[in-house]
Specification:
Shape: globular
Distance between the termini: 67 Å
Strand order of the largest sheet: 2-1-22-23
Number of strands: 31
Radius of gyration: 33 Å
Structural class: alpha/beta
Number of helices: 25
């Protein structure tokens, strides 16, 4: 059913979409005039049959921002592609009993149709999907670049394993200890895996955060994830072996009354006594089901006593050894000393398990618990030293005994990129009995993913069952060899895609260096905060690697970042294909056109926050464009002469420019509505003001604005997006006149208009007729507010 009103919105959309196509309005030319502006949304997974309202809320407002920048004179590059490889797409294919390639291609076709309905300013000549051979050939090239410089390597490691999906998962994909795709319990498992050595760039990744315009919360998340700590490695001897602990507070070592080691630490079995082994093994098994993220969350700490003891190297006293999952083997040394007198976490743990709590730092002459620096007490020969001095002194003394040394550590772990699934980029590695691990030469790329009929996951890589794929010749010596059968994590595909858009049709290079250095980094990047420690971190890492290898001149991929909020289901739950609670925008677009849906979202939601979906007042928003159309019909003069309208127009233009630049779309719409009110209240409607109102609205209702503009200038057939966005007239930003209240004996008598700089005498002269010859005993004048005559 189509809603009929003054304006037939679906018909208007079809008309102007065809006009854009016929006249190449959205065509991009990197050599056009204007300062470059590269704006980009995180490319979507085509892992469902269609885009839902959550996608629309991401893409429509960001398109509004791109259109605004274009009208401001920038040469805007705003491409779109699809993150089509990986677990989401493969799982959707399994769910629909289709092949991933066929299913993904079908989904992408639907997505493109919906994005065109949205009215996105996309030039599809600059687009790709990450499963395109012409794209993943260069993803394989990227892997080889990292391999050749020692940044891609294999090792045995504990990984997150989903038994149902039959693959390794990233920490991001296994939060809460469950698989984000199938909700199955995730376990920790030792496997030989491919890694990218992101830890080599930990310090660069930290320093780079200081020079990019990103939300402070996102930068804080990355800093915490990288987790830099400056401290010391201290050796605690035991009867079975030495335990090395990492601490940033050596000054509290005399208060260390227990040791905690990670469940997966290899020394656990060495220090565990026979009688404690059943309890320790049970605890380790339970901890293996938790992801690292879950283990680091702020919840009640648990642990188990091993039965073993270590010697505190400072006090020479024995301390019990515990196993606890809040300690990670991959961070520091996988062991920490517990100082319950001066660490809240340790205090909670010691209180729970009845461990001695000893105070060794005095702060502000109180006996209260403190984590702050202070003066050492109960610390033998170090009593009276400040914490700052003791940190160096104690470490140096332990170093002389070969029991300690200074160390900087990072929580960041190397990036596990191997996946035991079919739908991904084949890792371009050959295993040769003679030559060992050999990268596939560039001339032999791509290593093509075969079209497997049986691609279901069974715990080993599905490609290992395809002999035609597995068996090959060693590129170095020519003897029989075997291809690597694992595929890459989909985050590898998305870690460099922003470099490829401009060269999507080039098959000779991944990207042109000169043009890339001209157009990158991305000026405005838009996407979800949930990718803060995944995609966003990986993209920064890859960019820094490419700079070091000489492929680009910049070391940060995204100069400025905006996180959009999330449109939730009506019940407040996250919209998700796996929850079957997604809402398609198609029905709204069919009835109202996409501009009305866009305008409703821009006005009804804060872009940064989002909120639960409610379409109860969607129909109401259709009245605003109709109202603007009626103003056009009432145009009676070309130039604006009304002082109030001139002022409102100038302040609105200034505010809307700021709003659209900062993604404050809801206030931009509200200001335009206020501007429309001012035009309506004028004695005569001017073409000048209505034109500026429509220009302000153009990025927010692109199809409708084209129609409105064509009504203002019916003899000019041109796109509104080739016009300049209005600029405020400076002299109109301040009001030259203002209306004030005239009172007699404190009762309102009348309202008059005065100059804003009028003196009391000038205002009194204007009120002569109102006083009707009466002489006031007293006059009360409040500048630009009121004048009160006491008779």
């Amino acid at each position: 059913m189509v809603y009929f009103c003054i304006m037939n919105y679906p018909q208007i959309h079809d008309k102007w979409r065809k006009f854009w196509q016929d006249n190449n309005i959205n065509k991009f030319n990197p050599n056009d005039k204007g300062k470059k502006y590269y704006t980009l949304e995180m490319l979507p997974y085509p892992s469902g049959a269609s885009l839902h309202l959550g996608h629309f809320f991401n893409f429509a407002p960001s398109d509004t921002h791109a259109r605004f920048k274009r009208m401001c004179g920038f040469n805007v590059f705003h491409p779109m592609g699809f993150d089509s490889f990986g677990l989401p797409s493969e799982n959707h294919a399994l769910k629909t009993n289709t092949h991933p390639e066929d299913n993904t291609n079908k989904n992408i076709e639907k997505f493109i149709s919906q994005l065109e309905q949205l009215g996105g300013m996309y030039d599809w000549d600059y687009s790709f999907s990450t499963h395109d051979v012409d794209y993943y050939k260069w993803t394989q090239w990227l892997f080889i670049e990292l391999f050749n410089c020692g940044l891609a390597y294999q090792k045995d490691a504990a990984v997150n394993w989903c038994g149902d999906c039959q693959t390794v998962l990233s920490n991001e994909q296994s939060q809460g200890g469950v698989c984000e795709r199938c909700d199955s319990e995730v376990e920790r498992k030792q496997m030989k895996q491919w890694f990218f050595k992101i830890t080599d760039y930990a310090e660069e990744l930290l320093k780079g955060l200081d020079k990019i315009d990103w939300p402070n919360k996102t930068k804080a998340m990355q800093r915490n994830w990288i987790g830099k700590s400056e401290g010391a490695i201290i050796t605690y001897p035991t009867n079975a072996c030495d335990i090395q602990v990492f601490t940033t507070r050596v000054d509290t070592i005399f208060g260390a009354t227990f040791i905690v080691i990670a469940p997966e630490h290899p020394i656990v079995q060495k220090v565990t006594t026979k009688d404690r082994k059943p309890d320790v093994d049970a605890y380790i098994s339970a901890a293996a089901k938790k992801s690292d993220i879950e283990r680091m969350e702020n919840h009640e700490k648990t642990g188990v006593f091993t039965g073993g003891y270590a010697i505190n190297p400072a006090s020479n006293l024995p301390v019990p050894i515990y196993v606890a999952d809040y300690v990670l083997y991959t961070y520091g040394t996988g062991a920490v000393m517990g100082v319950p007198g001066h660490d809240a976490r340790d205090h909670e743990f010691a209180t729970k398990y009845g461990i001695e709590i000893k105070k060794v730092i005095q702060n502000n002459d109180t006996n209260e618990f403190t984590e702050e620096y202070g003066t050492l007490i109960n610390s033998n020969q170090y009593n009276g030293l400040s914490s700052e001095v003791a940190l160096k002194t104690i470490t140096n003394d332990l170093k002389k005994k070969k029991l300690g040394f200074l160390k900087t550590t990072y929580r960041l772990r190397d990036w596990s990129i191997g996946r035991q699934r079919y739908w991904g980029v084949p890792i371009p590695i050959v295993y040769c009995d003679k030559c060992g691990v050999v990268p596939v030469p560039m001339s032999d790329l791509p290593v093509t993913l075969p079209y497997l009929q049986d691609f279901k996951p069974r715990g080993n890589a599905p490609l290992s069952n395809d002999e035609n794929f597995v068996n090959c010749k060693c590129p170095t010596c020519g003897i029989n060899a075997k291809h690597e059968t694992e595929t890459m994590d989909t985050f590898v595909c998305s870690s460099w895609y922003f470099l490829r858009y401009m060269f999507a049709k080039r098959d000779d290079v991944a990207f042109d260096v000169e043009m890339t250095n001209k157009w990158l980094p991305v000026d405005k990047y838009i996407g979800g905060a949930e990718h803060s420690c995944g995609h966003l971190l990986y993209s920064r890492f890859i960019t820094k690697v490419l700079k070091k290898l000489g492929h680009v001149k910049f070391d940060e991929p995204f100069s400025s970042l905006v996180h959009q909020g999330m449109i939730l289901a009506p019940d407040g739950q996250k919209m998700s294909k796996s929850k079957n609670n997604t809402i398609s925008p198609d029905k709204y677009i069919e009835e109202f056109g996409s501009d009305i849906l866009r305008l409703y979202m821009l006005f009804g939601f804060n872009y940064i926050d989002g909120g639960p979906w409610n379409d109860g007042t969607l129909r109401t928003i259709t009245k605003f464009p109709e109202r603007v159309m009626r103003l056009i019909e009432k145009i009676g003069t070309d130039k604006e002469t009304d002082n109030n309208v001139q002022h409102v127009r100038a302040t609105t233009i200034k505010a809307v420019r700021e709003d659209l630049d900062s993604f404050s779309f809801n206030t931009a719409v509200a200001r335009c509505m206020e501007f429309a009110n001012a035009i309506t209240g004028a004695k005569i409607v001017s073409r000048e003001s209505v034109r500026d109102l429509v220009l302000l609205l153009a990025p927010m209702i692109p199809h409708i604005a084209e129609e409105l503009y064509s009504k203002i200038y019916p003899n000019k057939i041109q796109s509104i997006f080739n016009q300049k966005f209005p600029k405020p007239i400076a002299k109109h930003l301040e009001k030259s006149t203002i209306e004030i209240v005239v009172q007699i004996n404190s009762k309102i008598k009348e309202r008059i208009t005065i100059k804003t700089d009028a003196t009391q005498d000038e205002v009194m002269k204007l009120c002569a007729n109102i006083l009707e010859g009466q002489t006031p005993k007293k006059v009360i004048y409040v500048q630009n507010k009121l004048i009160n005559f006491i008779i």
